[in-house]
């Protein structure tokens, strides 16, 4: 494994964690992305452990350079400051995992092993935040009334206007008008898109 880490104390901590296990070996360390890239080219490690915030070449830049190589290693990010956008950028660049320095040492070891085997591991602290964000994004708009939500739900179940009118005790023409307004309110171009929204918002039981 090659380590890219600009903090000497963090480098020592990583070395001490790895020294406790028999299946991981650090073959090279660098304080910045540029020398780390050269180490990856020359040593051809199975795994690259990289910080994100480094002075001359960031971890994300390093990952992009690494994945331009013919046979890139697996990459695990290990950083003190992590947010959803940085994590997403790193994962999109090719990283196999994203851990925080506040995570337990055992998790770092597990993350290195996961990366080696081609699996992914994300810090639970970041994952919880991402899930909360995902849940917020998948809530229906607050300006939809209870009737609006019921109509979206019925469209999501595949009912036509006649069936919906019987279910909500409205005339078919009224239902048609309601749904036309709903398409505009929800930025949907078709009933199919509205039905997809019903599933996205959890209005339809699968």
UniProtKB/TrEMBL annotation:
SMART domains: HTH_LUXR, REC
A GO BP annotation: phosphorelay signal transduction system
PROSITE patterns in UniProt: HTH_LUXR_1 (PS00622), HTH_LUXR_2 (PS50043), RESPONSE_REGULATORY (PS50110)
UniProt keywords, alphabetically: DNA-binding, Phosphoprotein, Transcription, Transcription regulation
Gene Ontology molecular functions: DNA binding
Residues in Response regulatory domain copies: 1-116
UniProt modified residues of type 4-aspartylphosphate: 51
CDD domains: LuxR_C_like (cd06170), REC_NarL-like (cd17535)
PANTHER family per UniProt: TRANSCRIPTIONAL REGULATORY PROTEIN NARL-RELATED (PTHR43214:SF24), TWO-COMPONENT RESPONSE REGULATOR (PTHR43214)
Designated name of the protein: DNA-binding response regulator
Species, as recorded: Tessaracoccus antarcticus
């Amino acid at each position: 494994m090659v380590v890219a880490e600009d903090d000497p104390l963090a480098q020592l901590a990583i070395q001490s964690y790895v020294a406790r296990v028999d299946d991981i070996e650090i073959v090279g360390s660098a304080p910045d992305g540029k020398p780390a890239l050269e180490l990856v080219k020359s040593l051809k490690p199975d795994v690259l452990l990289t910080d994100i915030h480094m002075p001359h070449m960031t971890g994300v830049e390093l990952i992009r350079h690494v994945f331009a190589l013919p046979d890139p290693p697996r990459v695990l990010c290990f950083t003190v400051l992590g947010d959803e956008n940085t994590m997403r950028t790193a994962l999109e660049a090719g990283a196999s995992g994203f851990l925080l320095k506040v995570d337990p040492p055992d998790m770092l070891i597990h993350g290195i092993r996961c990366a080696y085997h081609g699996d992914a591991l994300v810090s639970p602290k970041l994952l919880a935040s991402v899930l909360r964000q995902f849940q917020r994004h998948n809530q229906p708009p607050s300006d939809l009334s209870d009737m609006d939500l019921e109509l979206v739900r019925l469209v999501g179940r595949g009912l036509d206007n006649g069936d919906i009118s019987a279910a909500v005790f409205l005339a078919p023409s009224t239902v048609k008008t309601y749904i036309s307004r709903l398409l505009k309110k929800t930025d949907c171009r078709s009933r199919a898109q509205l039905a997809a929204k019903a599933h996205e918002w959890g209005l339809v039981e699968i």
